[in-house]
Amino acid sequence: MFFLFTLYRAAEHQRPKQLLVNVPLRPAINPRSIALVWVYLCASITAIALCLVSQSGHANPLPPNPVTIKVTEQVVEKDPNIAIKAAIPDDPEKGGPAALRANWPITPARIDAISPFVKEQIDTEFGTSTHELPTSNNSGSRALMVGLQWLGAVIAIFLLIYTFRHILFTLNRLFGKQRHPYSDIDVANWPSVTVLIAAHNEEAVISGSIRALLEVDFPADKLDIVPVNDRSTDRTREIIDKFVALYPNRIHPFHRIDGKPGKAAALKDATVTVTSDIIVVFDADYIPSKGLIKQLVSAFFDPEVGAVMGRVVPLNVGTNLLTRLLDLERSAGYQVDQQARMNLHLVPQYGGTVGGVRMRALHSIGGWHDDVLAEDTDLTFRLLLRSWKTVYQNRCECYEEVPESWPVRYKQIKRWAKGHNQALFRHSAALLRDRSLPTVERLDGLLLLGVYMMSPIVIIGWLIGILAFYFGDTPLAIGLLSIVAFTSYCTLGNFAAFFEIAAAVHLDYNHRRIRLLPFNLIGFIVSLVGISEATLDQLLTDHLLHRRFHWDKTVRYRKES
């Protein structure tokens, strides 16, 4: 926490005040904040290296070169809990002072570690047979523990990679050159655009979205509004039809009464009727700003762009603690994470709503896949593998409802985890094989695909660290437990690393929100458990029982207007 607040205050002190939160100013780099970042990274890498080196340096727990071995009478009884007293001579050149004499309880690992020379001394002096002690199982236990410790070290390294990624994005967003290549386009020969509003039982919110779209700053003759009524059983169709009666030339509904459930399936059916060059997708609870359509569509003047994504801002942020924490998460995810990937020419993600897709690009990859839970992640990587760019427009703000209760949030995060992991299983191998993409782009794509898998990996790392701490014989266990605990806390905090949250609060110039930062530990734990449960369910239950994915609709809270 000290590091976060230091970085935040250092950047705030250097950065001049601004009226527009996204103006790409470049403050002077504060050496103190940069030094803290590198101290953190170097300390983490050094700790891992020292722990790995200690594995070989402490393999034998007995003192080196013991001169005499005195064994209690329990040796004759072959008791595995015998105590060996190592008598160290006073001569420093032969082993050290007598103060180092100690009793060494025999553990399974230490029995196996007794050198043949020591065993021979015991057998000769006491007429015993040390090789009859149960060493075979001890050897296996020690090998298992060493294997677990090395696995834990690998997990710690992965967590450190994600930590470095978050720090890199934060520093780039605070001090790097910002890319907004399409933000200045305001007057142009605009292409035809179809707006698809995905709606399943959305009677409480659909009217607000349609009204806002009717008022956007875009040529009306080139904007077709298509509410996609997906098998709704409430008054959604009735509300849509009322708008159609008022604006028959601007609103053309698509009423879907059967077919596969899910947003991807509904979009697939509705897209068949589209004749425009560009489609823009909204969920029914989203309210676009007046200039949003122009800002999104302007990116498609670049012929290499296949998809574009805008920024999502919570509308009900002041409801309770959860909505405030989700506001911090959204700020970090878009203001820092997405924009940094845009700055660094990496892989910004199409988010499924507040985003546009070029029809030619969509047709080139085979359209929407209706058997996925996260059609946005699936589309992002299918476009990437066909050399289409996805870009992020940070100034395209749209307003959404976020969950107001923890059970709703828990279900939402589980659905996201399953959908994202599904994209990981489908596209990671192809991404690794595709040599046409730059190496850094492929690496960032793999890290983006694997982000939801890190939660169960964190839990596995914790368990390994605890086992190693209580049952291991080497100092690797202590260092490993500390590294896994601290790097996981700093890396995966509520899906927006705490570094990024602090930077996003600064960039948005809503500084009072920084006081909520410690409460993100609650969201971190909830997300950690929910994602791990969803991943385990997906890998075991869904796979073994061949269950179909189930779409859990997010609860709406606004009253019908």
What does this structure look like?
It contains 18 helices and eleven strands. By secondary structure, the chain is an alpha/beta fold. Among the domains are: 68-146, no CATH class; 180-410, Spore Coat Polysaccharide Biosynthesis Protein SpsA, Chain A (Alpha-Beta Complex), CATH 3.90.550. An eight-stranded mixed β-sheet has the order 6-5-4-7-10-9-11-8, sandwiched between helices. It has a three-stranded antiparallel β-sheet with strand order 1-2-3. Helix 1 runs parallel beside helix 17, helix 5 (135-175) packs across helix 10 (321-343) and helix 5 (135-175) packs parallel to helix 17 (498-508). The two termini are 43 Å apart.
Quick overview of this protein structure:
By secondary structure, the protein is of the alpha/beta class.
